[in-house]
C-alpha cells in the first residue's frame, strides 16, 4: 500500500503498532524500527515505512536523549556516532536504488546467531573498544538509513561490552537521533520523503511521544540484568520475524 487515509482503520492500526514500539524505544533507546518495521512492511510500501519510523523515532528520541543526557559520555559515544553519520549517505543510496531483501536476510541471520550467544551468557569483550566502535557505528548508520533498523550491530556490540544500562540507553538514543535527522534531510533531497509520506508520518508522531513516557517509567523500574535480557530478546524475536518474512518472499 502506497499510503493510507488519515484517521482510518489502517491509520489506527499503524498508530498502535508505533505506540507499542515506541514504549520499548522509550525504555531501551532503540527498538521502534526493529519491532514496527517487520509488521508495517507487510502492508505498507517500504519507503513509507522507513519514513514513518524516522519521524516517530525522532520525536521519541528527543525525549530519551533529554532524560538520559547525564549518561552520555563523548569519549565512548563519538567513536560510534561519527562513523554512523558517515554511513547514512550510503544507506540512503541503498534505500533509493537497491532492493533490500538480501540485506534484510543477512541482518536477520546475524541478529539471531549473536543474540542467542549473548542470551546464553557467551561474550568476548573487545579490548580495543574505540577501534571496534568505528566499524559498528558505520554499519549501524548504513542500516538505519537503508532499512530503518540500525539497532542490531550496535545493541549486540554494547551488550557484549556490558555497558551500564544508563550509558547504553543514552548513547544509542543520541546516535539514532542524529542519524535519523540526517536521514530525513537526505530523504527530502533524494525525493523519497514526499509530501504525502511526510504528512502521514507526522500524524503518527503523538504515538512516539506517548510511548516515550510509558517506556521511561518502565526503564526506571527494571534492573540492568533484566534490561539487557529484554534488549537481546528483542533482537532475537525481530530477527526471527524478519527471517520468516524474507524467506516467504524468496520462496
Task: Spell out the blueprint of helices and strands.
Elements lengths: L8 H20 L3 H9 L5 H23 L5 H24 L3 H19 L9 H19 L3 H10 L4 H26 L4 H8 L2 H15 L4 H27 L1
Features:
single chain, 251 residues, mainly alpha, 11 helices, 80% helix, 0% strand
Written description of the protein model:
By secondary structure, the chain is mainly α. The protein has one domain. 80% of the residues lie in helices and 0% in strands. It has helices at residues 9-28, 32-40, 46-68, 74-97, 101-119, 129-147, 151-160, 165-190, 195-202, 205-219, 224-250. Helix 3 (46-68) packs across helix 9, helix 6 (129-147) runs antiparallel to helix 7 and helix 7 (151-160) packs antiparallel against helix 11 (224-250). It is globular. The two termini are 21 Å apart. The model has no long low-confidence stretch (mean pLDDT 87).
Radius of gyration (Å): 17 Å
Secondary-structure content class: mainly alpha
First and last CA, distance: 21 Å
Number of strands: 0
Report the principal-axis shape. Answer: globular
Mean pLDDT metric: 87
Helix content estimate: over 70%
Unreliably modeled segments: none
The major pleated sheet works out as: none
How many distinct folded domains?
A: 1
Q: What is the N-to-C order of secondary-structure elements (H for helix, E for strand)?
A: HHHHHHHHHHH
- Residue fraction in strands: under 5%
Count of alpha and pi helical runs:
11
